[in-house]
Design the sequence.
């Protein structure tokens, strides 16, 4: 089983965190290939930055088409996820949808703990897109400047635990989701400090991707996730052209 895990931002330090957690989680027979966006931003907080991240993932997905059995979009908020499900004939899993599905299996209401205030609007919209706003207890976030996306856990670990505790105590969360690739692996560290289950997006995405590959679902040939129709295009990156050529 071959998983391609794409970090839609340009931070190699974050890719390293994602890879470490993915390899701790994956089954022994699973082969993991990592990729980092060659253009974009250090970490995604806004809708426009998510648009850039989705473009980056699409380019990589097309460039490496045929070399993986499932693709993981490794940014909370899942930039480009639904669009990639249209053009790829293998399972595509996002960190957010995987974390949300895991959380729903563990409790009724979940809270999301995020790394910035600006990011929360995009996260809330992503929860809504997954039809789960009614189960969202809260989104809590750091309110301090970030030195580097790859050092968030080191710099703000204690505060993140405080936010988790407040979400349980004050918001009624049954499950905590630690949101964002910069927090990959933190759930393992803090699980024993919190009174409810803690969900990590990377580990959830890896396990859900493995399950989908094992189930062997067919690619949709009708409906909204059928491949886009073939039509003229021009001046597109090679990876995106490769995806469009796979159209219906």
Sequence:
């Amino acid at each position: 089983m071959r998983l391609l895990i794409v970090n839609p931002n340009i931070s190699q330090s974050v890719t390293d965190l994602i890879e470490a957690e993915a390899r701790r989680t994956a089954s022994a027979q699973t082969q993991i290939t990592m990729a980092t966006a060659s253009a974009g931003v250090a970490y995604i907080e806004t809708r426009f930055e998510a648009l850039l991240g989705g473009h980056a993932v699409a380019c990589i997905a097309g460039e490496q088409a045929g070399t993986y059995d499932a693709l993981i979009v490794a940014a909370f908020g899942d930039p480009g996820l639904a669009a990639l499900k249209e053009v790829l004939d293998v399972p595509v899993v996002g960190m957010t949808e995987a974390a949300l599905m895991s959380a729903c299996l563990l409790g009724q209401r979940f809270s999301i703990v995020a790394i910035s205030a600006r990011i929360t609007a995009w996260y809330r919209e992503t929860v809504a897109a997954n039809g789960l706003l009614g189960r969202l207890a809260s989104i809590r976030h750091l309110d301090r400047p970030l030195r580097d996306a790859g050092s968030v856990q080191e710099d703000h670990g204690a505060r993140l635990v405080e936010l988790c505790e407040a979400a349980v105590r004050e918001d009624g969360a049954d499950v905590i989701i630690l949101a964002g690739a910069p927090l990959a692996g933190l759930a393992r560290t803090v699980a024993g400090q919190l009174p409810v289950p803690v969900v990590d997006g990377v580990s959830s995405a890896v396990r859900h991707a493995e399950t989908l590959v094992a189930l062997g679902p067919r690619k949709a040939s009708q409906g909204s996730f059928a491949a886009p129709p073939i039509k003229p295009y021009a001046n597109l990156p090679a990876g995106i052209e490769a995806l469009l050529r796979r159209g219906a």
Residues 96-200 form a domain with the Rossmann fold fold (CATH 3.40.50.12500).
